[in-house]
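Run: sequence + adenosine-5'-diphosphate -> complex structure.
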Amino acid sequence: MAHTEEPLLRVSGITKSFGDNRVLDGVDFEVGRGEVVCLIGPSGSGKTTVLRSLNALETPDAGVLEFAGGQRIDFGARQSKQQRAALRDRSAMVFQHHNLFPHLTVLENVIEGPVRAHGVAKVTAVTDAERLLDRVGLSAKRDAYPHQLSGGQQQRVGIVRALALQPDLLLFDEPTSALDPELVGEVLIVLKELADEGWTMVIVTHELGFARRVADEVLFFDGGVIVERGAPKQLFAQPRNERTRRFLDRIL
Ligand code: ADP
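>> structure
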């Protein structure tokens, strides 16, 4: 998709090694406002490491992130604590395993971030949380504990917890891969609704059918580089690269 306006995020030259293992080797891409970008590719190709870098959970050896509005992080240079915190505040991550606090209720899990990290008044955070829980059909579960919910419900609470932080960018790390197959659909429906509402999302996923329906752009990773990128229609139907073709042949 061609962008006339400044992208929400521009990622340039991300490089990362773990010891001698170079896992990312110059990754560049852009995320436009309201766009959904899906990262696909074989296991170990670097997708999660890229995603975690966007949220300061991983620190690349080199590369630059530029957010609209002028925030710039150069991983080649030293960053202050404030810069890392500012980077973390731009986005919210939904993990493969929901990472809910087991000793807190659903509602308490959702308001924890806004109240503790953002200093939002508790009464405001509760009102926001109730609205968001209603949106994903979980109002009735507000006082339940995570272990009383199904895996799909837990993951939907995980998504609400990310939304409650009101980030510019939502990051999803294989949000359905820990779920039983019959629970995947309800989580993908929520993701599709968020996309339709205009949330900007970067999603690492093995759900290629989902990526085909929802992504504006698909990035195919292999060996720490983006081997091919494009609109899903083109990339899935007519992959140009041999490695993309082989991957899709195996999966589809
Ligand atoms: P993907 O998400 O595509 O499966 P990852 O980004 O998780 O790939 O991993 C890319 C490579 O980096 C893999 O070889 C993985 O073993 C390695 N890796 C990821 N995290 C670490 C870490 N903390 N320490 C050492 N190696 C890591």
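>> summary
The pocket of adenosine-5'-diphosphate is lined by residues 18, 21, 23, 41, 43-49, 204 (CB under 6 Å). The mean pLDDT is 93.
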